[in-house]
Predict the 3D structure of the following.
Amino acid sequence: MTPITRTVAVQRDGAANHEMWRRKSQGGYSEVAVTSLGAFTMEARDGRDDVVAFDPMTGRERWRTSVGATYRGHDGSHDGPIATPAVDRGDIFAVGPHGILVALDAATGKERWRHDLVKEFGASAMIYGFGSSPLVEGSMVVVQTGGEQSRGLLAFNRADGKLRWNAAHGLKGSYSSPSIGTLPGTRQIIAAAGDRVYAVSPTDGTLLWSIAGPGDGESVANPPQMLPDDRVLITFWGEAVLLKVTRQGQTLTTTELWRSPRLRGAYSPTVHRDGHLYGFSGAFLICVEATTGAERWRQRMYEGTLIGLGAHLLVLGRTSGNPHVVQASPAAFTEVAKAAVLTPGATSMTGPSFAGGQIFLRNSEEIVALSLEGK
């Protein structure tokens, strides 16, 4: 495909952003992962769900590897994968919507190993398929699964795919991906299942702490988010919960700091800046105080997703296809730029990506790369 280059009428700090390329996609919700090795995502193509690699500067495809037959959309969803590939040190790990986990060579797309999470580990698919993205930690890759017969959180050797440990058996599934961090002084993997939010040791899967979840995995899609001062933010479709993780001897415990229906979202992440949280609450973009959950402002944006860009937020409308640049300030909602970039009407549930001075936007029909440097 020959990329199309044009100037996009959006201003940021006085400089025009430029469209570098645009490529069609037959479906999928995966975000674009970018490293020095290239750009990677998943998409539907000609009856298959593929991992695809392309040049981030030109959009030209380098290789594609199938993970299985295309997952067909239903009940308002579109065809294609949901999860985003994890890329690290020449390795790519990806989970297809039918529950196939693959390890690929990032340079060539050659398959190194694969597992069927349903047949081998008892995992159950969610209504819209498997959507949890893999987590890479050292020599392991960790995948979250669920279902009554599921072996839960699965840790594999990244080199050969052998199972190292599994934890949290039989919990309800979710679309959420696991997160990893150190709280307080203890390295831990935190996962949000349908009926539990829990943390385990990455060494052997030992349970460190656990609290009740919302009960319905369909309402859980965002990964747990770690905040300063040993806090963890969990956002569900109906509410958000902020936890404090503390140590009492060798035991880790959690305290609920606040719970609020104001900040809620199933698929849109929350951005933390200078003690404040920015995210969606239904059709509204809102700002709340991280300490108390008190609302500072709200602005109707008709649903969408967002990422942080320094002192700004990049907000992508779900159906408009328009990116908005908004100041990350608790004082008031201030939009500093917007543009018509993606095809209007196509669903934009995929979060933007930013790397190397480029922004990557995606909807159900296309992927677009913009240059912030105006090159």
DSSP finds one helix and 33 strands in the chain.
